[in-house]
Amino acid sequence: MSDLAVAASAPTAMAPGNVPGDLLVRAGQVTALRLFDVAYAVDLKRAETLWAARAARAGERRGLTGTPPKAMAFGEPPLTLRLPPVPLALPGGDAEAQVTARVYDFGVVSLALTLPVADLPWSAFTVRVNRLQQAVGPGAAAGDLWRGLLEAVRAPLREALERPTGRVLEEDYLLAVVNRLEEPLPAEALAECVDLVPLLSGETRPLSAGARAELLRQRFSYYADDLVVLTWDRAFVYEPRQETDVLDVLEVANAQLLEMRFYDELLDEELPRIYDLVEAARRAPTLLSARRYARLARRLHGLVAEVTELTERVDNALQVTEDVYLARVYAAAMALFRVPVVSAAVDRKLQTVRETYQALYDEASSSRAELLEIAILLLIALEIVLSLVRH
Q1: Three-point CA angle 335, 340, 343, nearest 5°
Q2: How far apart are the first and last CA of the chain?
Q3: In what order do the strands lie in the sheet with 234-238?
């Protein structure tokens, strides 16, 4: 059954007294994002050269489209790559999705599958959003598709990847975008004419008043005719000017969440090893403990320096100065995705490593001082013995 057929059988989502009929979406898109951690860092200039040598079309590096660079800008603009379209087997019929990839300097590749939308009733638009999520979202049988697209990006850029990661860590997000309606509507009128809850939740059964209020809580508008509604795993964007800044900001927030999760898990794995190494150093003979303490302290110092440098690069991926609206959307997304919570966990674990490093440094210094004292006492004893022997 097609989206239009499903829409015809679905009840209208409009409130009584509003515009009759099903609101027509003239132009828009539905985009499924899947982000992967592929390396500790990426040399974007090298990646751009490698991609241009392998692909018919060069990659592109650009900042935000509708915002002055001094107001809000990427710290290091990502590399945008175009891939061939791919067929998608959606419930109700096949479709062809446009594919783009973005490579961030802090080691993240973001893949986007986009289905253009034209002349769909609102109910069919909601169906299209939910069907794309069912087809390529978490738990769907689309893992091979995403992995194939990732390899199509990663393989040509392998020489630009610094310390590629072996683990598979990923994030996903869904974007429903409306650029043009049958008749231009202010944001408030749009929110009254249609029910955004089925689109944002993916649920077909009615939700409670509390659940509905929570889903619609993160709403933002700058002009009278634009609207952004954020949830944990989806966002609705009404943007008649077709600017992509909000979409870019949401992608960056997801990329930052992914990287913070990576460093959180990395430190979770490192801390037990550190404790084991500390115990092994403490069990070593006194003559060897100072060297072991010093070697382990150097390793911990290197780990702290590396993670701190990379997390600062992630934190500075998007620099916000003057654009208050985008700053609010960005801050809300970061809070909604719990990036500050994960970042705080990383900071706490880094502090534990720093304290362990300091303790090891102190113990190494103490062991060296003890060895020096023993050596001095032995020299004194030797001098006494030699004096007795001579007399």
Answers
A1: 155
A2: 112
A3: 60-61, 79-90, 93-103, 108-121, 24-37, 170-181, 234-238, 227-230, 218-220
What burial class does residue 296 get, using C-beta atoms within 10 Å of its C-beta: 0-12 exposed, 13-18 middle, 19+ buried?
Answer: buried
Tokens representing 279 are 């115990």
pLDDT band at 77 (very low <50, low <70, confident <90, very high): confident
Quick check: 156 and 54 in contact, CB under 8 A? yes
Structure confidence at residue 288 as a pLDDT band (50, 70, 90) = low
Tokens, residue 378: 């032995």
Provide Rg for the chain, Cα atoms.
28
Answer whether 296's CB lies under 8 Å from 360's CB.
yes
Looking from the CA of 2 toward its CB, the CA atoms found within 13 Å total 6
Enumerate the CATH 1.20.58 domain ranges in the chain, comma separated: 253-390
Q: In degrees to the nearest 10, what's the CA dihedral of 88, 90, 92, 95?
A: -30
* Dist. CA 122–CA 25, nearest whole Å: 6
Q: Count, in order, helices (H) and strands (E) of the chain.
A: 11, 13
Cβ–Cβ under 8 Å, residues 39 and 162: yes
Label residue 240 by pLDDT band (50, 70, 90).
very high
Distance CA 279, CA 306 (A): 24
Distance from C-alpha of 168 to C-alpha of 127, rounded to nearest angstrom: 30
Q: Are 346 and 264 in contact, with CB atoms under 8 Å apart?
A: yes
pTM of the predicted model, to two decimals?
A: 0.81
State the DSSP string of 234-267: EEEEE-TT---HHHHHHHHHHHHHHHHHHHHHHH
Tell me the CATH number for domain 253-390: 1.20.58
For the stretch 133-184, pLDDT in tens is 988 887 767 778 999 999 999 999 999 999 898 778 899 999 999 999 988 8
